[in-house]
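Go through this:
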Amino acid sequence: MANSSAQSNDSCNRALNPPSLRQTNHPLKFIPVLQQPSSDELRSALLHYATSPIVPQQTLSEIRVSFDVLRRRSPCNFLVFGLGHDSPMWSAFNSGGTTLFLEEDPSWFQSVLRKSPSLRAHNVRYPTKLSEADELMESYRKEPECIPPKARLRDNRRCRLALADLPGEVYKMEWDLIMIDAPKGYFAEAPGRMGAIYSAAVMARERKGEGFTDVFLHDVDRKVEKKFAMEFLCKKYLVGGSGRLWHFRIPRASGNETAGTFC
């Protein structure tokens, strides 16, 4: 059962003593070193990375950016666009919280869950194509249902960027951290991350509780990721990053912002 947003607001402000990072002989590989009694989830992740030749998709310096935020905010509500070799790690870093993964590739979804059946994940579909990125950017500016203060997600058929058909728990939960490392965005027919970036911005603005939403976007060396990040996640909210990862800290909408823009 998902934690309520009210519970999240209290729990995510508590400081914990989370795992620290220890680098192994492999330049991109690390395992969590526990500083307090471990849960089954933490033990499983430790065993997985200690024995697997497969390393996480992000570099150690990129992972540290998100890890440092999780160290302050965990246990909390953590939404991850993408499912992969690093998923047990993210789930373990948020031990005691809610970590939910969204993955578009059905075969990859099944493959990962066979190896890590305890992960909480949904197979989802995206209505966009990377080749439509420029058109989507132009069309959203002409559709009032895409633009603050009317921007919303669930059942929003008028806005082509809104992820309107995600599982219900995605909309019910108030997400404290959002990681965007999917869907695929490196060939024309791929879904691209336009909808994920837009939807993360809407979720952050709709936050009801106190504080900010930390949003992490990977692969910002690519044109579309960079362009949509500047449009929806906003340069003024960019607080850090490393390598190909940017970290945004987005406040909830106050009602005083300029209508018609996210930034």
The domain at 5-134+162-251 is CATH 3.40.50.150 (Rossmann fold).
